[in-house]
Amino acid sequence: MRYKSLLLALPLVWGAANAAEGVVHHKLNGMPISESVEISGNKNIIFLSGKVPAKISKDAPEGVLASYGNTEAQTISVMEQIKAHLAELGLEMKDVVKMQVFLVGGDETNGTMDFAGFMAGYSKFYNDKDSGNALPARSTFQVAKLANPAWRVEIEVTAVRP
């Protein structure tokens, strides 16, 4: 009876031992994202507040789309800010495990979010070729507005310290 209990518990111990090794990404076929990400219990989880695009020029006027660029340019701006903040924390983009993306559709896109523009910017940071298995799980939403009428992109991420 003792051996039977030990044998029944063995898969649980084995699974816990594997999970303790770190972060496991389960890739979503056909997209540069993970369908899910597993994090062991001994990792630090870091939540970054939403980042919004910086003005293309400090002299550019507020609230004007040309001051921030199109969705692709804004995505690159936001991702660069995320990358810089992660670096300050001793982390990299590969440490991001979850991303939430908020896109606004403006007059220039007939009120529909520019998902292709977002993906063009996103793919400069995460893609099937360069990212390997370290792709974040991701959700993308179209929202009515962000705090500045010229912003088309806000991104928040969750990272894990290896």
TrEMBL record:
Protein name listed in UniProt: Enamine deaminase RidA
GO cellular component labels: cytosol
CDD domains for the chain: YjgF_YER057c_UK114_like_3
Gene3D superfamilies: RutC-like
Signal peptide residues on this chain, from the entry's feature table: 1-19
Keyword Transferase: no
PANTHER family assigned to the protein according to its UniProt record, in alphabetical order: 2-IMINOBUTANOATE/2-IMINOPROPANOATE DEAMINASE RIDA, ENDORIBONUCLEASE
Keyword annotations of the record: Signal
MF annotations from Gene Ontology: deaminase activity
